[in-house]
TrEMBL record:
Protein known as: TLD domain-containing protein 2 isoform X2
Species, as recorded: Leptonychotes weddellii (Weddell seal)
One Pfam family in the UniProt entry: TLD
UniProt gene name: TLDC2
Residues in TLDc domain copies: 55-216
PANTHER family recorded: NUCLEOLAR PROTEIN 7/ESTROGEN RECEPTOR COACTIVATOR-RELATED, TLD DOMAIN-CONTAINING PROTEIN 2
Length: 216
């Protein structure tokens, strides 16, 4: 009997000790669990995740822009589909890099004056005979604070691209943003689609760097 008591008592002490330790471990593991779930929700200080660094936008500009993007792209990583430093100054090259993509695109550029501006397109940039896109499309400019020019509802001239130029927003023969086939010269005028200001410091500008980010 004494041997049996020793046999049964020792495991029970070990079991009690193990169960107590497991209880402590469970408390240690489960107690802080709600924090990472609830903490990012109200602040969301990180912003979108970029697959690689932007040569045009800094972290602050990226966070500011992300607040104006449609909810459907929130949380999607940004993938650099095209940039002039890597793919060259060519609109044809931009169209080629867009092939296979259907998701929305953020077009960002910096001109020779150092001004940063661009556009959000609700779908991929492509060759087209007519205007395409939806009311999610908008123009923006950092001058130096971010200004966003949303769709006014007056027309549906969102995006149109041929081999010689890319146009975004139109009205009365003027384009909110247009780029030439070499992706070197461009222009910006107030237009009815977005009721925008001139995005650059002047109506005509020369591009120093341009990037197209796919947000899907």
């Amino acid at each position: 009997m004494k041997g049996r008591w020793r046999y049964t008592r020792l495991p029970s002490q070990v079991d009690d000790a193990l169960s107590a330790e497991e209880g402590e471990e469970e408390e240690e593991e489960t107690a802080p669990a709600p924090a990472p779930v609830s903490a990012p929700a109200p602040e969301d200080p990180v912003g979108p995740q970029l697959a690689e660094a932007s040569q045009v936008l800094g972290a602050s500009e990226i966070r500011q822009l992300s607040l104006h993007l449609p909810p459907r792209v929130t949380g999607h990583p940004w993938s650099l589909a095209f940039c002039t430093s890597r793919d060259g100054f060519s609109l044809r090259s931009l169209y080629r890099q867009m092939e296979g993509h259907s998701g929305p695109v953020l077009l960002v550029l910096r001109d020779q004056d150092g001004q940063m501006f661009g556009a959000f397109s609700s779908s991929a940039i492509r060759l087209s005979k007519s205007f395409y896109g939806t009311g999610e499309t908008f123009l923006f400019s950092f001058s130096p604070q971010l200004k966003v020019f949303k769709w006014t509802g007056s027309n549906s001239f969102f995006v149109k691209g041929d081999l010689d130029s890319l146009m975004m927003g139109s009205g009365s023969g003027q384009f909110g943003l247009w780029l030439d086939g070499d992706l070197y010269h461009g222009g910006s005028h107030p237009c009815a689609t977005f009721n925008n200001e001139v995005l650059a410091r002047q109506e005509q500008f020369c591009i120093k760097e341009l990037e197209a980010w796919v947000l899907s």
